[in-house]
Amino acid sequence: MKIDIILAGVGGQGILSIGAILGDAALYENLFIKQAETHGMSQRGGAVVSHVRIADHPVSADLIYRGQADFLLAMEPMEALRQLPFLGEKGMLISNMEPCLNLPNYPPVEKLWFEIEQLPRYVLVDGGVITHELCNPKGINMVMLGALSVFIPLKKESLHQGIKDVFETKGEKIISLNIQAFETGRSVVLDR
After folding, report:
1. pTM, rounded to two decimals
2. Beta pairing, strands 87-96 & 47-55
3. Which strands form 32-39's sheet, in the order they lie side by side?
4. Residue 12: CB partners within 8 Å, gap ≥ 6?
5. Count of CB atoms within 10 A of residue 135's CB?
6. How many whole angstroms separate alpha carbon 80 and alpha carbon 88?
7. Are 25 and 154 in contact (CB under 8 A)?
8. Crossing angle between the packed helical segments 140-149 and 172-190, to the nearest 10 degrees
9. Tens-digit pLDDT profile for residues 73-107
10. pLDDT over 80 (residue 28)
11. Is the CB of residue 94 less than 8 Å from the CB of residue 42?
12. CA-CA distance, 3 to 152, in Å (whole number)?
């Protein structure tokens, strides 16, 4: 078993937290993991991309080649399309519908959704509505991780433990809010 995941978004959207949680969950299941990150100008809404490779055997390289990713998890639609060349022929895109309007000439979001809907395998998640309903605007990354979790071979319990590990210094309330956001993201996909 081997899965290659590209995580894409802009600074401040929690890409690195998702990568850390996936890494912890994989280690809890005695799997091998390699991860690499690129950071843009996060304070200016710059791109952040993380490559996560999980396998039941040693993984030699930490970067995923173009056209090889099994999953592309995007925190916003333009970053989804920007990283699309990494997605494999049978890969799946999971993207938040809500844009991060970090550019003065950001394209109409409907055009971005249209492009995503042309893909053979995709899931669009209305993360903004979900986090508003949860009264947890910072939980969008956990909603999206929950959506991804439906498709990857990591146990929900391992991912919960990863969430606890990553947010343990923030206290039980924050851990609980993040697990709730994760579970809501899972439910949105499972209920389709």
Report:
1. 0.93
2. unpaired
3. 32-39, 47-55, 2-10, 69-74, 87-96, 122-125
4. 42, 45
5. 8
6. 14
7. yes
8. 50
9. 999 999 999 999 999 999 999 999 988 877 778 88
10. yes
11. no
12. 8
If you count them, how many residues does the chain have? Answer: 192
What average pLDDT does the chain have? 92
> What pLDDT sits at residue 45?
66
Report the distance separating Cα 16 and Cα 111, nearest Å: 28
**Which two three-digit tokens encode residue 111?**
């055009």
Residue at 17: amino acid letter: S
